[in-house]
Every structure is written in C-alpha cells, then in structure tokens.
Amino acid sequence: MLMRTDPFRELDRIAQQVFAGAQGTWSRPSSMPMDAYRAGNEFVVRFDLPGVDPDAIELDVERNVLSVRAERRPQEASDGVEFQVSERPHGVFSRQLFLGDTLDTEHISAAYDHGVLTLRIPVAERAKPRKIAIGGNRKSIDA
Fold first, then answer.
1. Is pTM beyond 0.90 here?
2. CA-based nearest residue to 52, from 75, 32, 73, 29
3. CA of residue 14 relative to chain centroid, distance
4. What is the CATH number of domain 2-74+89-127?
5. CA distances from 131 to 2, 55, 134 (A)
6. Following DSSP, what letter does each residue of 11-26 receive, concatenated?
7. What is the layout of strands, in order, in the sheet containing 42-48?
8. What is d(CA 28, CA 25) in angstroms, rounded to the nearest whole number?
9. Domain boundaries in the chain?
10. Measured distance CA(91)–CA(74) in Å, rounded
11. Could you report the per-residue pLDDT of 41-75, keeping only the tens digit for each?
12. What residues contact residue 60 under an 8 Å CB cut-off, 6+ apart?
C-alpha cells in the first residue's frame, strides 16, 4: 500500500543532534512523525504537526506521490519578551509518500485536529476482494 523510502532520515537525526550540541540550534526542522495503517476499505495516515496553523499545510498528489508540506512559524517576540529557551523546531517540514496503485488518490480526504493531520485514502475498487461467478456452457455427459 505504501512504499517507504527515506534513506537519509536517520542521518538527518544524528546530524541534528551533533549540530544542536555544537551550535545550540539547527535551522533544519526535525522530521514529521507519521503513523500509517489500513482500516477496512481505507488507508489512514496521521502526521504529528503540533503548533502548525492549518493554513500553513499543503497537500499535493502527482501520480502516486503524495507530498505533505507544513510550516511552523517562530513565535514573534513582543516588547518586554526575552526568550530563555527556544527548542521547538520551526521552519518548513516536508515529506513524500509513494502510494501503491491499489489506493484511490482521486478521493483523499484530510482533517486537522489537535495538531494531528489525518489523511484517509480509499482502497481502489479494483483492489477490493470480490466474488467471481462461475459460468460457461455445461455439456451433458450423455451427449
């Protein structure tokens, strides 16, 4: 249903830890955690995007590639505010999913609630189990 190819994800995580220790912060945001599973006749994908404005989320499908892009903007410091700690990553998060041919990419629905983006992708009709009727001409043994 879903092909996962992200060979640099672990490398990015390690590099982020190293650079954060050396420089205090790192400009590239961490990855977008995801859960994906099949529930009946649909495929469900959930992304954790806490603190992201729903207007700052973009979803695109081209062929069988689903692209998710989200931006968490930094909190603006107002007069008299001095940050003591700023660890929450901000910037642009993006992720691509390679969807199998068994999914109906024409009917994807999306909802955003409590910092979780939920995508529901129906299983294509041609991929659903179905009964096959047996037909044909029966010839009599006596004929």
1. no
2. 73
3. 22
4. 2.60.40.790
5. 26, 44, 10
6. HHHHHHHHHHHHHS--
7. 34-39, 42-48, 116-122, 109-113
8. 9
9. 2-74+89-127
10. 8
11. 999 999 999 989 999 999 999 988 999 999 988 77
12. 66, 67, 69
